[in-house]
Amino acid sequence: MYTSGFTLIYKDEELDWLFQHPKKFCWWLWLRNHAASKPCIQGAGATGIVVHLQYGEVAPTLSYLKRVWNADERSIAGFLSDLEEEGRITFREEKGIRIIKIVQYERFSPPAGYFQRKTRGGMSGGLSGGMSDDMQDEKYHELHNEPLAGVSDEMDGQIRVNIINKKTNKQENTFSDSSARERSFYEDLKKSDMTIEQMLYSLKPENGKEGLMQMLDEFINYCLGAEDYHDSFKGFKQHFMNWSRVQIRQNSNVKSKSTQNGQQEKGAGQTNVARRRGSEGSARTAADYEKPFSPPAGAEDD
Predict the structure, then answer these.
(1) In the predicted model, is pLDDT for residue 118 greater than 50?
(2) Which domains occur in the chain, in start order?
(3) Maximum Cα interatomic distance, the chain, rounded to a whole number of Å
(4) Each residue of 262-279: b (16+ CB within 10 Å) or e?
(5) Going by C-beta distance under 8 Å and a sequence separation of 6 or more, which residues neighbour residue 74?
(6) 121-163 confidence digits (pLDDT tens)
(7) Burial classification of residue 51, based on how many CB atoms lie within 10 Å of its CB (0-12 exposed, 13-18 middle, 19 or more buried)
(8) Which pLDDT value is given to residue 270?
(9) Residue-level pLDDT at 290
């Protein structure tokens, strides 16, 4: 166990609408875990047909997913269709087999060597790109928490203070740049009439465009407040779509419960009125209202 590699799960995935549906979120994790980490050849389910998979691709048949996910094919097909609509996956066919490709799979399973750290002989792996020698040395000593060779404890401490100061300044600059970039994504989305129209068609918010703009204002305030920034306009837009779906679904559930409670109270009230009204003097047809009221037989004698 714990020797077969790994895929990443991000902390903010709890905001994903799939997270609200544990079964579907597990299906999404299954696809991420079973996608190819490098080009390979794979047999497709029980068909025995061999297909060529590229990085981030997986080729399970519906019948196979039905068995391993313990779900019906209609639910599985609907789930995959939702993922495709959101741009999380794409499909292609090879030899009649539908192959699923996870978009930007490197976010969940970085290529081999991406996380390699510096060795004594130098820096290797994907993290070294664009780093100067000084930055590599600082990063190495920060990661390993080792004293710098050939310097006194006092100088070593001062070097570490400088590293911390540089890191703090970098974080402050990054925060400022990220906030500005996030506001830029927000303004670009507001000005993109085509994108807004597509979102209105997909989300169908209650108050139309006005409701969508209100949710967009709430979303940007959330992102800035939570420091939940995005690297691209596409990422910002996709996150907003997922976030909006959750909001709309929650509002719909609240209104549905309120309506049900109102109907139950109304029904109970009508029942009580009927009980109080009695049946002796009640009219059942329009003609009954035209007849004069006659007291029951024997009432005059009393």
Answers:
(1) no
(2) 18-107 (1.10.10.10), 133-249 (no CATH)
(3) 124
(4) eeeeeeeeeeeeeeeeee
(5) none
(6) 444 444 344 444 455 445 444 444 444 444 445 555 555 555 5
(7) buried
(8) 61
(9) 59
Mean pLDDT over residues 48-55, rounded?
88
Q: Tell me the C-alpha to C-alpha distance, in Å, between residue 21 and each of 76, 87, 107, 299.
A: 14, 19, 22, 68
Q: Would you mind telling me the total number of residues written for the chain in this entry?
A: 302
Residue type, 14: E
Residue-by-residue DSSP string for the chain: ---S------GGGGGSGGGGSHHHHHHHHHHHHHS-SSSEEEEEGGGTEEEEE-TTEE---HHHHHHHHT--HHHHHHHHHHHHHHTSEEEEEETTEEEEEETTGGGTSPPTTTTPPPBTTB--SGGGTT--HHHHHHHHHHHHT-PPTTS-HHHHHHHHHHHHHHHHHHHHHHHHHHHHHHHHHHHHHHH-HHHHHHHHHHH--TTHHHHHHHHHHHHHHHHHHHT---SSHHHHHHHHHHHHHHHHHHHHHHHHHHHHHHHHHHHHHHHHHHHHH-STT---STGGGGSPP-PPTTTTT-
- What is the residue type of 117? R
Start-to-end C-alpha separation, the chain: 94
pLDDT per residue over 242-282, tens digit each?
Answer: 988 988 888 888 877 777 776 666 666 565 555 555 544 55
Q: What is the pTM of this model?
A: 0.41
Q: Nearest 5°: phi and psi at 249?
A: -65, -40
CB 60 within 8 A of CB 45: yes
Structure tokens at 255: 């209104």
112 backbone dihedrals φ, ψ, rounded to 5°? -55, 135
Contacts of 176 (CB under 8 A, 6+ apart): none
